Amino acid sequence: MANPVRPSPLDDPDYAHFAWGRYFRVLRWMGLLTLGVIAAAVGYLYATLGLVSIHLYIAAMLGIGLTMMLMAALMGLVFLSSGTGHDEAVDNGLEQHVDEWWK
């Protein structure tokens, strides 16, 4: 007999609002940290290389910024899913077949 669908804690609108608010607060802090890292990296590049092509600085800023923000967004989603109990609400069907595998 299949397990009934377990509700996710994110189905509750109040709890979802709290969890997504926490996620976007983390993203804002990571955005500020990213701006600081970009400023430090561009400062280092300017100190070591001087004024070279503006494209180097644009590429460095975009590369660092997009990489850090993508990492923050994906890790934030992992923490959101795990921290809210949403992962436990997923029924992957493995519980039904574990006994058969270990026989």
Structure description:
The protein is mainly alpha-helical and 103 residues long. The chain has one domain. It has three helices and no strands. Helix 1 packs antiparallel against helix 2. 2% of the residues are buried.
Number of domains: 1
Shape: elongated
Alpha-carbon Rg, integer: 22 Å
What is the averaged pLDDT score? 81
Q: How much β-strand is present in the residues?
A: under 5%
| Helix and strand sequence | HHH
User: What is the quaternary state of this protein?
Assistant: single chain
What is the structural class? mainly alpha
Keywords:
mainly alpha, 3 helices
Q: Which SSEs are present, and which pair or pack?
A:
Elements (H helix, E strand, L loop, with lengths): L12 H37 L4 H30 L10 H8 L2
Helix pairs in contact: 1-2
Kindly summarize this structure in a few lines.
This protein has 103 residues and is an all-alpha fold.
